[in-house]
Structure formats: structure tokens, C-alpha cells
Description:
Layout: H1 4-13, E1 20-24, E2 32-33, E3 37-38, E4 48-49, E5 53-56, E6 62-69, E7 84-87, E8 99-102, E9 106-111, E10 114-119, E11 132-133, E12 144-146, H2 154-162, E13 167-171, E14 176-181, E15 185-186, E16 197-198, H3 201-211, E17 216-221, H4 225-237, E18 241-245, H5 256-262, E19 266-270, E20 274-275, E21 281-284, E22 290-294, H6 298-309, E23 315-319, E24 323-324, E25 330-340, E26 343-348, E27 365-369, E28 375-376, E29 381-386
Parallel strand pairs: 6-7, 14-17, 14-18, 15-16, 18-22, 20-25, 23-26
Antiparallel strand pairs: 1-13, 2-13, 3-12, 4-11, 5-7, 5-8, 6-10, 9-10, 19-21, 21-22, 23-29, 24-28, 25-26, 25-27, 27-29
Helix pairs in contact: 4-5
Bound molecules: adenosine monophosphate (AMP) and magnesium ion (MG).
Amino acid sequence: MISVKEALKIVAENAFIPNISEIPLLKSLGKILAENIVADRDFPPFDRVAMDGIAINQKAESFQIEATQYAGETQKSLQNSENCMEVMTGAVLPLGCDTVIRYEDVDIQEVDGVKIAKITIPLNEISEGQNIHRKGIDRKAGDVLLQKGLKISPPEIAVMASVGKATVKVEMPPRVAVISTGDELVEITENPLPYQIRMSNSYLLSAALEMVGVRANLFHLTDDKALLFSKLKEILSNHDVILLSGGVSAGKKDFVPEILTDLGVKKLFHKVAQKPGKPFWFGKNDEGKTVFALPGNPVSTFLCFCKYFLERKNEVVVLDKDVFFKPDLTYFVPVKTYFQDGKLMATPFEGSGSADFANLTDCDGFVELPAENQVFKKGEVFEFVRFRF
Ligand code: AMP
Ligand code: MG
């Protein structure tokens, strides 16, 4: 049996390698960027007027207005350095000007057809170069603005739009199949007989996948070797990543590992020193397709999915109650989190075990209590596997 750390490493090293595709910019939101984005010109591309007002060349009490420089016009020149120009935000700074004074600090009056701008604030409050967004101050032409591998959010969309990327290369999400197994499971539209239960794991996983932008195909297979073999074969042929739940433990009808091996999916590990989710099986075939065969108990299924499938930020929480756990296993306890004095606190909700998925509705994630210890004290800091975002 391997440790959680080793299992995580194996999963990371064997992740499915996504296809890259060039898609329209707005379709790329939430996807992983697969190319570097480089500035085609300076940011901003010219000395940009940052306030509506007047542009001047030297400090004085009043100026005659020569002309107006609007946004979207070619650059004008100040003819007489004792005059000023009216300028609008987004305009090119007129040639011969070095400072912009906002309208709020100017009084403009017309005398005999001549427009005069009078400064209404003390001259020492005006600093040379103010209200000008200098060419290239944010980024220079040729700078890498976005590194490949990042997740695209609205600000990245804006940056790509500004350098004219109408289409962008991204990693395409894998084709994912979610398969529940078990003779006791019935569809959620059915009335279960007393010894049956409605399947919930495939809905759980499917919803969790949707949260990270992946739409999965759902299947249910009964615990029948021949059926598992033929259906899994077919599903493997047209998906990249397969998430199974159930059928990987020590039960007499837990056929999943055997069938996967028969289908050429090489076992990379089976069983992890953790609770819940110990029977987790992970493998990969020659085409690089990965199979996460998760234990069927819903809390186990979900924990394994969150811990091993989702790419996670490193987060920690402060335990707000003591927890005791003897076995030599990493113990993942559902927790409810809240902030206190700027720290993320976690109240453990152990529930009644790995089948108690109703307990998860009171929680936000799992706290990860390391295998080496048995006593976990209030106030100690541990890793956090978040499932509520
Ligand atoms: P297994 O891993 O197949 O031994 O299943 C362990 C427990 O999880 C059993 O009580 C199953 O009934 C339950 N279980 C398995 N799959 C599902 C599912 N899709 N939805 C809800 N419970 C499940
Ligand atoms: Mg089963």
C-alpha cells in the first residue's frame, strides 16, 4: 500500500496529455493557455492623456486654448508654448506638452472669441508629467504578457484582445466518462426496491466536473464481468479519462481491477494508506488514457476525486477541535470552515463514515491529517482539500 503523497505523485506524473486546439478568444475562458502571449506594441502604445482637461508646456496662471486633442485623433502640436490644448482621456498627448491638468482644476472662459483656461489651484500643486500614462510604462513590445499553462480568466481575455488574438491556442478538456457500478443501484427516476439504492455518485462526479468546466458522459454498469469487459472497452475507445465508482474493494463482485487489467489498462497503484478511499485503483493504457477507479462509498469517491483529480491550490486550515485517529493512515475529515482573525478555521464533522454523504452538505472540504500522528490538536495547521468554491 502506498502513501497519499506517493499516490498523488503517480497521478500527477501520469496525467492525460491534453490536445491543443486554436479556438475563438471568447471560447477560451476557463481553459488552459497553450501558447505564450507577447505584446505586439508598448502598453500603452503612446503617451496617453489620463484625464479630461488641458495639456500645457510650462506652469502659468492662465493659458489661451489653441485647439482640442480628442481620443482617436492623430497627434497635434502645440504651436505656442505659452498656450495650452484641451485634451480628452485616451487622446495622444499633443506634441510640445508635458503635463495635464484636469478640468476640475481649471476655469475656462471665452473673452472676445478667445478661450482662456485659468488654473484654480495653487501652481505648486501641479507636478510636471502628471496625468499622463507614459508609453510602454505598463509593458514593452516583445514582453511575454501571459505564460502558457495559466488558466484564462477575464483579465487574460482583455490582454489577449488588446494584442489582437482573435483566436488562441488552448488545452482542450479531456473527454471524460463517469461510470457507476453496482447491482444495487437504480436510476434516480426509479422507485428503489427495499434492497436497492438510487445512484448518486455519477451525479456527484458529474457535477464536480462541471465546476471545473468538464462535461462528462454518464454510464451505469452492473457487476457482471462480461458486461463490464465489453462496455468498458467501448467507453475506453471514445474517452480520454475514465472515472469509475465502486467495484474496486475486496467484495466477491468487485471485478473492476481485473477487467481493467484484461483491457490493457496498466495498474499504477491499488490501495492508498488513507481513510476514506483506501481501495482507490489508478491506471493508464498504452494510448495514455487514465482510469480513476474510485471506491463506491460516496464520501470515498468524492474525497479521491477532490484530492487526486482536481488540480488544487495549496490551502491550509486551523483545526478548531481536537481529533484522535489511531490507524497508520492519512485521515481526511470533512470540515466546515470559517474565518477568524484572518485565519481559515475548520470544524471537523466526522459523520458516520465513508457512506455518510449527507454529512458533506454541512462541510466545505476535507482536512488532511497525516498518517504519522494520532492526536491532532485544536490550533494546529493542516492541509485543506476544498470542494466548495
Ligand atoms: P463498492 O465500492 O462497490 O463496494 O461500494 C461501496 C458502497 O458504496 C456500497 O454500499 C454501494 O452501494 C455504495 N455505492 C457504490 N456506488 C454508488 C453510487 N453510484 N451511488 C451511491 N452509492 C454507491
Ligand atoms: Mg459495488
